[in-house]
Amino acid sequence: MSVSAIGYRIRERRRTLGITQAAMARQLGISASYLNLIEANKRAVGGALLARLAERLDMDVDVLTGAVERRLSDDLGELPADPLLKDIRVEPDQAPEVVARFPDWARAMLRVYRAYLDNNDSVAMLSDRLNRDPLVQESVHRMLTHITSIRSSAEILDEVRDLEPAQRRRFERTLRSESKALSEAAQHLVSHFEQGEMDRGSMAAAEEVDEYIIAHRNWFSELEEAADEFRRALPDPDRPAIDGAAQELLESRHGVRVETARDDNPGREFRNQCRFDADARRLVFLRNAPQTTRRFQILRVAAELGYAELLERLCDDPRLSTPASRARARRALASYVAGAVILPYHRFLEAAQACRYDIEILQQRFDAGHEQVCHRLVSLRDPEAEGIPFAFLRADPSGHVSKRFPLFGFPLPRYGHVCPLWSVFTAFQTPFRVVRQVAEFESGRRFLMISRTVTKRAAAFHEQPVMFSVMLACDTLHADRTIYADGIDLGAHETAVPVGSTCRLCARANCQQRQEPPIALVAG
Fold it and tell me: Do residues 452 and 432 lie in contact, with contact meaning Cβ atoms separated by under 8 Å?
């Protein structure tokens, strides 16, 4: 549905409630003539006025603006990019019509498609592990060795009738020991695969959590209030370094010890350079974890424990349909609280506006990491005090996208590879330097992309550091409010880089970066 339909929705809902235009205008604190222009789609509406309208009309903001339908049609429009559908003539621009006419069918198709992706991912993972995993190969070799020994001993016992009693007992002992070893090897192999399944996670769960956060516009007022309460509970909440106070609170209130791992290479049990053992009440960090990461994770665990009831209530949402998605959502919301404690909303917003969203200055002022600052900039969505609307993306050098938050009009694909021309990838060519880019999509919309690499440093000389690229993007209508637009003619034709969303949905025939043909050519 078009954005221009918002006036229609307002008028129809007002009439359904039996409220006159004059009465509604008085409730909103605006003139009846201005409300008339809004309902005629001749005036834009947003911010605090949009929030008041939604409240008076008893409608969710996303339903009122049509954001729910837009997200659904955007997701549905990406399905034809899957090679599975290459022989079927499916036009992505028909998605809005499908959503408008059959919204439940659209949701059903997306749910089935996510399950299909999940199953494909599982098959690929199992196939790869069977073919390449050294532990699997070693376990299979051990099992075959034990089976061979068991078979040999069994054949001797069965075929040789005149064995001495001592010899028979020796072969029987061999059978027992080899059978036990075979059982242990098999159990070890099963445990290895089970652990892999736990580590892999579910693509469907990730999609549901993304959908849930997007539906809330990444703005949770109750979590902001919890973060304010949390800061007041710290012994000295206004000092720049809250590390010791947060650790003391975690230990005294929740009985959780914070430790540092002795081993530089502890394996896969660590996530984000730490591991929380809820049963042993231990939060263990890798030795190379930077202080910003330690601070954030200490606060996240404290939020999970201290606000468990609030997080559970917020996750009681039909969009989170499985225990895996609810667990993932609880962790994401606890991380939201941690970020809000480190970067208090109004202080951070004022600082961002004062320095024109200079991420480096915000890092220094709040003693936070680059990615933490970018995450917080995306969550400045309070209707009463809103920051610049940003999209967010994090990718690794292979092109795998591990985090994303969309923006209206910004075609951020959810099911395929992102356009390689985006600055989130070109940033790898100049590590640790900000790369800015004005990108123009086929629709004519232009966005300012701001990207920079971040690294999880290695613990020892022989280890490779883990590198990501983090990108923020905003409409060029807001770009001049940032320091990153300085010196750029945002309207000049030669300034913009022609980009797409993903190859199969992009019709730029002369693109030298194309990896796959567009759907139109495949279908034709």
Answer: yes
